[in-house]
Specification:
Largest sheet: 8 strands, mixed
Number of strands: 16
Shape: globular
Bound molecules: adenosine-5'-triphosphate, manganese (II) ion
Structural class: alpha+beta
Order of helices and strands: HEEEHEEHHEEEEHEEHHHEHHHEEEHHEH
Radius of gyration: 27 Å
């Protein structure tokens, strides 16, 4: 047999083509004649047409949903509805059987919950095929965006001894025998005997190391896995997720916001340009899901309109204090419709508040800046009011926070003082403080949660459905 050609390339060909071979998996087999084959290269199936007279009935029986086959024949224009091309097969090989009696995926629609329980097979469905092709393209576009701007992709560590935010939620890493822990004289666990000679964990963020890179290379970004032992079972949190963290020397908060907005718009546009059929499929899926909701909870726009809308309009930019006033005076708050009433300046916004601002009040993405310092990390630049810091969070419709960033505190004394206030050990983080001691400069950066971005672009409502193998509390099977 000649080398096979992937279906996305076949679909670009001008028929007729005398002999070519495709390989893929059977989606459906109708009337002993029409085999819909998908090879994962694109959303579309290729219709393979056979003359049942020419085949052994035993072979025909093995053409079942999910079976891997090779088909060789002539590519011709299709007269049937639904496709432009079809392959008139002279030869079919079964490469892998898929017995219908035991195959969990039937040729019908399965719920996302069912598919989550069969995550090892779900990538074979049209919805997940579309999601993971788009996830790939987003990753590609991210690298492209930063590369063409001269950013250096910096690989920050996954195993680390520091807890970037002092916030807990860490996965500890150890090679100690948990049944026989070594103890110090005063009975504490003796980490000097652990692999690294001290306590270690999986990273929650590459930012602190990223800042060190920016102080030498100017513009850097990280793109790697991060881990948080969050025991919150939400549709927006994973225990293992991917984060993109650019860090820019000589950028202030406005430069930071401008970059983040340009970046987000660029990667959305990239997917719009490259995945029209995948997006159309996902838009229809979402519309069907939304049609089951009560009228008031439905979004006015379909998925494609939403993506175009985000690209076409500037993000709203407001301070925390302005957002607080809007929320406090909102009819929602007055009618006590928030689970957490908005009363006290300084409170952290809950996702219900973020969604109110984005979905009800502004009806577009919102960047909130200058948060109270008590609810933000120690490294954010302190404002002169003594109360707020140069933070910026980007909030998205349907998602809530998608980006968290800030201008960093570059003044050594201020940083040290804030660390002491928060009982963060300057000795442990001496290397971080050194970046302020030796040629420190104004700089800024942000973190984009990759899966939340994939959620927004694909319209998938649960974050578990945009990562191949989600890790959440009590769930690590696949
Ligand atoms: P949230 O308040 O939603 O928990 P956060 O304030 O903990 O977010 P950051 O520490 O600022 O988030 O992390 C940067 C970005 O990483 C967030 O804006 C979000 O997009 C993403 N992110 C944070 N935690 C998770 C998680 N558990 N799963 C997936 N993405 C996450
Ligand atoms: Mn969080």
């Amino acid at each position: 047999m000649p080398q096979h050609i992937r279906i996305r390339e076949v679909l670009l060909m001008e028929p007729p083509k005398p002999s070519l071979t495709i390989k893929g998996w059977v989606r459906s087999f109708r009337n002993d004649q029409f085999i819909a084959v998908n090879d994962g290269s694109c959303h579309e199936n290729l219709q393979v047409v056979i003359d049942p007279q020419q085949y052994d009935p035993a072979l025909l029986k093995r053409i079942t949903t999910g079976a891997a086959i090779a088909a060789q024949g002539e590519l011709v224009a299709s007269i049937g509805r639904g496709q432009k091309l079809e392959l008139k097969a002279q030869h079919i090989d079964i490469l892998g059987d898929c017995p219908a009696e035991t195959y969990p995926l039937q040729p019908k629609k399965h719920s996302l919950e069912f598919l989550r329980e069969h995550a090892h097979l779900r990538m074979r469905t049209q919805t997940f095929g579309a999601v993971f092709r788009i996830r790939h393209s987003l990753a590609y576009a991210i690298h492209h965006f930063f590369h063409q701007k001269g950013f250096i992709y910096l690989h920050t560590p996954i195993l680390t001894a520091n807890d970037a935010e002092g916030a807990g939620e860490l996965f500890q890493v150890t090679t100690l025998d948990l049944k026989q822990l070594p103890r110090t004289e005063n009975g504490e666990i003796d980490y000097s005997q652990d692999f690294f000679g001290r306590k270690a964990n999986l990273t929650v963020s590459g930012q602190l190391e990223g800042e060190l890179g920016a102080m030498a290379l100017g513009l850097i970004y990280t793109f790697g896995p991060t881990f948080r032992a969050e025991n919150s079972n939400t549709t927006r949190h994973l225990a293992e997720f991917w984060m993109i963290e650019p860090e820019m020397a000589f950028y202030d908060l406005h430069d930071n916001m401008n970059l983040a907005e340009e970046f987000i718009k660029y990667i959305i546009q990239y997917v719009l340009d490259h995945h029209p059929t995948d997006l159309e499929w996902l838009a229809n899926r979402l519309q069907e899901e939304e049609s089951k909701k009560p009228q008031t909870e439905r979004s006015g726009m379909n998925l494609l309109e939403k993506l175009h809308f985000v690209i076409a309009h500037p993000f709203e930019r407001i301070t925390y204090t302005e957002a607080f006033e809007i929320l406090k005076n909102s009819p929602y708050n007055k009618k006590k419709k928030f689970q957490f009433p908005v009363e006290r300046w300084g409170m952290d916004f809950q996702s219900e508040h973020e969604r109110y601002l984005v979905e009800k009040h502004f009806q577009k993405p919102v960047i909130i800046t200058d948060y109270p310092k008590e609810i933000k990390a120690f490294y954010m630049r302190q404002n002169d009011d003594g109360k707020t810091v140069r933070a910026m969070d980007i909030l998205f419709p349907g998602i809530g926070e998608i980006v968290g960033g800030s201008q960093r505190e570059e003044r050594y004394d201020r940083l040290l003082h804030r660390m002491q206030e928060l009982h963060i050990s300057p000795n442990e983080l001496y290397w971080y403080l050194d970046s302020r001691k030796f040629g420190g400069c104004p700089h800024s950066g942000f973190g984009l949660g990759f899966e939340r971005m994939v959620q927004f672009v694909t319209g998938m409502t649960n974050i578990r459905d945009v990562i191949p193998f989600p890790r959440t509390p009590k769930n690590i099977s696949f």
